[in-house]
Amino acid sequence: MSIRLGFFGTIVNMQQQFLDYIKDEQKFLVICSQPLDLDSIGSGLVIKKYLESLGKEVNLVFPRNFSEIEKNNFNYLPYFNEVQDGDTRKFFNSKQFDVVVFVDGTSLTQYFDSDHDRDVIPDINIYDKRIHVDHHLKLIDPLGKLIIHDNKIGSTMEVILTYITPMDFFDKETATLAYGSLCGDTGNFRYAFTDKTLVLAAKMLEKGADDKL
Fold this sequence. Notes:
By secondary structure, this protein is of the alpha/beta class. It is built from 6 helices and 6 strands. It has helices at 11-22, 38-53, 68-74, 156-163, 172-186, 195-206, and strands spanning 27-32, 57-62, 84-85, 99-103, 129-134, 146-149. It has a 6-stranded parallel β-sheet with strand order 3-2-1-4-5-6, covered by helices on one side. α2 (38-53) packs antiparallel against α5 and α5 (172-186) packs antiparallel against α6.
């Protein structure tokens, strides 16, 4: 397990350190990784909504254009219409945000349209404040100044539920996103889950998550 939040402490302390890191910042760019899946897009949307609940301005971007098939496959998700799509390198030509949040990916190539002009690498150092949230076994490119990474957890959404968002934040729509993400990265709880995963899923159902989407 590698959770780099400055110290190993209680979950409440970790949630507070996240809040302390962002408290003086207003404009956020959240990038959810490719390839597109439920955990990536759901985690990005939950972070967007949580930051907005704190009074922040948030742009959430998927780093290449959606295909029509992808739009049709994912438009049932709450708030999916708030996800922008397109190459994110345009946001790294000049500083347009206070904080960049990288969600659910291990490599920088997952956060821009690397199918086109792969060798043109965005300069992420233009942003002094960067957060990287992930669950995969190894971070090829640790992108954050604040890294929230637990490789013993089966989904980025579970990392978010455990270390970032308090339970009282969730309503029916955000709980639906969280529940869907948990289902997506565990194959509907057939693999990569623990008893804690199931407890978190149950809490999302208590919050009104729609499990029939």
